Every structure is written in C-alpha cells, then in structure tokens.
Amino acid sequence: MLFRSRRANELTTERTEKPTIAEIRRVAQPLSVTGRSNAEHWIADAYQRKFSPYLTRIFINLGFSANTVTWLMILAALSIGPALLIQGWTGIILALFLSHLQMFLDCCDGEVARWRNTKSPMGIFLDKLGHYGAESLIPICFGLRLADWPENSISESNYAYFGALLAVLVILNKAFNDAVHVARAFSGLDRIADIKGVNLPRGGILRIARRAFNVVPIHRLFHSVEFTMYIAIFWQFGISLQIALIFAVIVTIGHVLAIISSAKLRNSGSQI
C-alpha cells in the first residue's frame, strides 16, 4: 500500500517546463528507485545519483526523450570493449571512463522517463540491449587484446577463445535472470519485488553459499564497471582471463542452482 501511494505521488507531481534540480530529485529519484536492494548499482549510490540530475535537466531542457538518452547509453556501452583494443594504458583508461559514462547515462534515461511519465517496453528493451552488448563485448575484446590482435592472428593463442567463452557465460547468466521473469509472467505470477533476501535459496548449503557471495560478490565481477576495473588492475597478467573464466563457470552453475532452489519459480511465491 505504501508503494502504491508513493507511485501515485510520482504520477501526480506537477512537472514544470524548466525543472529545477530539486524537482528532478523529487520526481525522478523516488525512494522506490534509490532504495532498491538489488537493482541499484553501487556506483549510483556512491556518486552518480548525486550528479545525474544536472545532466538529466539538460536532456529535459533539450527535449530529449528517455529512449534518446538510452541510445546514448548504448553508444557508450558498446564502445567499452573496442576501447580495450587500444594497447597500453590509453585503452584501459578510456574503457574505465566509458563504463562509468554508460552507468551515468543509465541513471539519466530512467530519470527522464520518470519525469516525462514515458516508461515503455521499448525503453526496457533498449536498456537490456545496452547492458547485454557491453557485458558480452568486454570479455571478447579483452581476449583479443591479450592475443595482441590484429597484429597477431587470434589462432596464435587461446586468449580470443577464452574471451568468447567468457562472453557466452556472461550472457547466459543475464539470460537466466530474464528467464525467471518470463517464466513468472507466462505463469500469471506477479513481478518479483526488489527486496533484500529475495534471491536467496530457501535453505541448506546453497543459502549459506549465496550469503557468502554477498560478502565476496564474485557474481558481480562481470558487470561492465566491475569487469573493466578488474581488467585495469590485472591486464598485464594473461592468466587473469582464465581466472575470470573459472569464476564465471562457478557463478553460472551456482546461479542455476540458486534459482531452482529459491521461491522465485514456485506458485506460492507470487507475493515474494
């Protein structure tokens, strides 16, 4: 009931033609967004939500739609991986910048959508396109970087193949999350609430393991910001790609088991 009243307030708040930063914060950064337990990225909490309204106001004043901002996010997202192909620290620093820019624009497109009341299936699809594209291209391009491509053929080492395999596992893990939502929707169940503990298995060793992952969240390593930071620290060590691949295999197996053993796919869990 509290959520509904908040939602009603968001929809009925008057929008001015030239909004102030305070108005944007009130309308576009409601507690239902900033208080999310699972969906809000840590860098949004750290600094991006503090500064994103300033860029959001520029987009609103320029007449940009939320989807236009999302296309800008996609452009930044798809540029992260190719930036890694620039050898030396130049490519690393550029990739780091682009990964943070992607998430910054990701904050802004949602804020523009909430200000204009224009949330749509197209916007959600484009958002997924940006994140899927970024997080699959980064390991592929990291593998090509380690293989010293295009100066050397990709067949001269296994790095390119390891990067491609890692990309497949990253996409699979993202697809598992979407498959849960699809399965629930097709079964007529409600959307899973974004509350703390909802992703935990119902009991046993898997629940303990999931809590351990919350302490050392290796499952978050493959998000664009985190994996780009990982590359920035370990890019001079070729074995870092193999280690990331081992982590991805562990995360993939654990992810499937955690989903199956949780209440997400149970009919009785429609009010999770």
**Under the CATH scheme, which architecture would be assigned?**
Up-down Bundle
Element order: H for helix, E for strand: HHHHHHHHHHH
Strand residues, percent: under 5%
- Mean model confidence by pLDDT: 84
CATH superfamily: CDP-alcohol phosphotransferase transmembrane (TM) domain
The helix count comes to 11
- So what's the overall shape? globular
Return Rg in Å.
Answer: 20 Å
Count of DSSP strands: 0
Fraction of residues in helices?
55-70%
Which parts are unreliable, with pLDDT below 50 for 5 consecutive residues or more?
1-12
Structural class: mainly alpha
Instruction: State the distance separating the first and last CA atoms.
Output: 15 Å
Largest sheet: none
Number of domains: 1
CATH class: Mainly Alpha
Q: Do you know the CATH topology?
A: Four Helix Bundle (Hemerythrin (Met), subunit A)
Task: Walk me through this protein's architecture.
The chain is 69% helix and 0% strand. The protein is mainly alpha-helical. The chain has one domain: CDP-alcohol phosphotransferase transmembrane (TM) domain (Four Helix Bundle (Hemerythrin (Met), subunit A)). Helix 4 crosses helix 6 (89-116) and helix 8 runs parallel beside helix 11. The radius of gyration is 20 Å and the shape is globular. Residues 1-12 have low confidence and may be disordered.
Output the keywords.
272 residues; mainly alpha; 11 helices; 0% strand; globular; disordered N terminus
Topology:
Blueprint lengths: L1 H11 L8 H8 L2 H4 L7 H20 L4 H18 L5 H28 L4 H26 L12 H28 L17 H12 L8 H11 L4 H23 L11
